[in-house]
Amino acid sequence: MLAELYGCDVADLLDYQDRKALPAADLQLLECRPAPPTPPTPTPPPRAVEPPQGAALVEVAAEESAAWAMWAESTNVGDLACEQLLADTRALAAGYLAADPPLRVFAATRTLRDRVFALLEGHQHPRQTRDLYVLAGYLCGLLAWISSDLGEPHQADTHGRTAWLCAELAGHDGLRAWTLSTRSKVALWDGRAREATTHARRGAAHRAPGTVGLLLACQEADAWARLGAAGEAQEALARVDEARAAPQDQDDDIGGLFSCDAFRSLNYTTGVRLRTGCATTALEEAAAALAIPTRRAYGTEAQMRITLASAHVALGHPEGAMEALQPVLDLAPEQRLAPMAARLREFACDVARSRMADARTASHLQAAVEHWCLESVPRHVVLPPGAPGTLD
User: Per residue of the chain (392 residues), what is the pLDDT tens digit?
Assistant: First the structure.
């Protein structure tokens, strides 16, 4: 305190005799005591920068516009890259309808979707941004469709909502319609048939180019038939006929899964005819469609064969049912999707309620369906390795 009062250091207050009389501990304490801090030198306030005036102001404004133009012109994706992303998306949509394992297509689709998402987090031209949103929407739609086929409707709905957001951000009616078609499919196989009709009608209201209008009419008819609403189903079938007869002014953006050819639409309509009591017509149309030698999606062909087998059961033809169903029963486990399993369970119930229920063929069919379902893809995906019914 005295040192602070006199403005000096503590050591300046002690002479030799004082130091000699101090205990060693006190002397050490004094020698180790830090010097008082030097008060900081006040910093002068910054000088105000004068704004440019006259010709300097005009020059600075031009430099700012040039700098912004350089930023606006820059992009993290080129037109060639967008073209490649579109080609990759089309390949995945087509590959899923072929014999490619669903989980492999799902993984590749997820990887491509992540690439598009990462690009959207950067900067590109507005036209390129819109193209990327459209691609992201179709990829999410493909993930939604596959998730439903794997027996995961909740996850499918999540992808479907994201696809719809992309369609809205892009302002793209084609993507809006295909997204609602996908959501209708997911709702139908999740047991929400009335919701499926709502999605199908909303999708048709966008009047998008390509074949999506045909598929939406097919989906609405299918959903009404499952609800037992024969009148509404027939009205939707009339719209199917109109869509088939209408000229297609534009191709589908993506194709593959996001397209509806004649065989795919017939798969829906024969199923509707079967559910509305026209088993003979369903059998004739399904048999004629399957007799045409053409390349078609294995999943669609499997469902058409299940319709044909069900028509045989309704008409009392057990041998015909077995013959129609055999190619479906021969599918590899990784191709046994949830919709096929659901259709086969319905088929087994039809057999149990039919007049051929006590026949040996009926018993064999029901046992084959049960074994088929135990080795389906949804069972393999949902159950952990080693659990009963999994494909270890």
Answer: 777 777 777 777 777 777 777 787 777 777 666 555 666 677 777 777 788 888 888 998 889 899 988 888 888 899 999 999 999 999 999 999 987 889 999 999 999 999 999 999 999 999 999 999 999 999 999 999 999 999 999 999 999 999 999 999 999 999 999 999 999 999 999 999 999 999 999 999 999 999 999 999 999 999 999 999 999 999 999 999 999 988 876 789 999 999 999 999 999 999 999 999 999 999 999 999 999 988 899 999 999 999 999 999 999 888 899 899 999 999 999 899 999 999 999 999 988 888 776 777 778 888 889 989 888 877 666 544 444 333 33
Give the type of residue at 101.
P
Tally of residues, the chain: 392
